[in-house]
Amino acid sequence: MSVEDDDWATAVDIQEGLTKVEIQPTKPASTGKNSEQDEFTTSYGDEQTPTQGDQSFLRKVLRQKLVTTQSELEVQQRDPNSPLYSVRSFEELNLRPELLKGIYQMGFNRPSKIQETALPMLVSQQPQNLIAQSQSGTGKTAAFVLTMLSRIDTRDDTPQCLCLSPTFELALQTGKVVEAMGAAMPDLKICYALKGIRLGRGEKARGQIVIGTPGTTMDWTVKHKSIDPSTIKVFVLDEADVMIDTQGHKDQTIRIHKTLDKEKCQFLFFSATYDDEVMRFAEKIVPHANIIQLKREEETLTNIKQYQVHCRDMDQKYDALANIYATLSVGQAVIFCHTRNTAKWLAEKMHSDGYIVALLSGELDVSSRAKILKRFREGKERVLVTTNVCARGIDVEQVTLVVNFDLPMTKDRHADFETYIHRIGRTGRFGKSGVAINFVSDRHDEKIINKIGDHFCCSIPVLDAGDYDDLEDKLAEK
Ligand SMILES: Nc1ncnc2c1ncn2[C@@H]1O[C@H](COP(=O)(O)OP(=O)(O)OP(=O)(O)O)[C@@H](O)[C@H]1O
Fold it and tell me: Where is this motif: Q motif (predicted)?
């Protein structure tokens, strides 16, 4: 990885250190106020699932472990060690009544730790900049959406907030959160700056909140001048680390960042992961940033149980997957493959063996991808086979199981720690229990999984996919 900073506005001190958790008192940044059915899906019921042996016990164990009740959530929100812990209420934030209404309508009773820590400074009269890290599924999106909604003036539909997401799917998902939270704000208008959405020549973007991917947003802001950067009060970089670390995204984000008024605009960077270099770089480009950073050992969530399953080859991987699939009587699963080809092969093989699976990979056009994800969200398929395109941010509450069919690796075949955290974070959303299973098929995989365990200071015990008694014991461990 390399992060060059030449192009960026700089000038704040770089703070060294890997595991700081700090909020710095800072200078305010601003003084302002069917036919759709996927080719790999069939109607194929549970009863027909080709299982071997008696898996009812495993089903029971998974069901017991994976269902989290509202009262369990309440307990976690009162546990100071939980990322969901909170002593505050949303009322204390002095939000507009219609925004508070939206939050309660979404079923949010109290803020999570990241929300309770970040929101007072984010929505204060003197908005402050923030670089924030919090574990997957702990409410970061809700935090920055609430901030944007608290800052807009709905009497006017000129763009006032700009939110960048790394993928089309994530941008749409964030838009849905804006819609839900802003449901009681009648004149709220969202504008999507996404591939395929075109503005006429000279046409201005209309909507207080613009959500987009970096390429289209850059075109609209820099090339076509459809967005006036001087009216932007809040700039959000979701999944900030990947936006900074991926060359194409980075260049486009830089060009948008350059147009924004560093004195008037509030800058918010959010992610579940930041490697050291990316964090240092983020600190340089966000003026007077407050920083919330996790310790390494805090990055993995204890409510996601992680295991490794040893398989000799692809056939064994496939058999293990079939056994695991058979246990999935509740919830949904996401299976991650390294390449589009493997994902396609796996989905086709599962499909021809009669499983209900959906395939989502980057080779599909964005509208097909959105349709597939919508179907999965609606529970039409219980298994989604995918690549890293779905590793980040996607929030599907019922996902109880993540399988790393291939371990996450960088191009030079090193362990990809950040992708690991994001992939397994598709389960265990907001305090729910989840299971992540890693397939390990050779010595190199063994090294990778050991490095992942060491990096996050957690153990990833071996699970024999055929040994259900063993699984019972392991899942029962607290
Ligand atoms: N205060 C809250 N009370 C109850 N549920 C909440 C609260 N905040 C967020 N949620 C819910 O928790 C889930 C995860 O939240 P969100 O998507 O904001 O997490 P995230 O930290 O952005 O995740 P990721 O790192 O994967 O992007 C969502 O379904 C959201 O609706």
Answer: 88-116
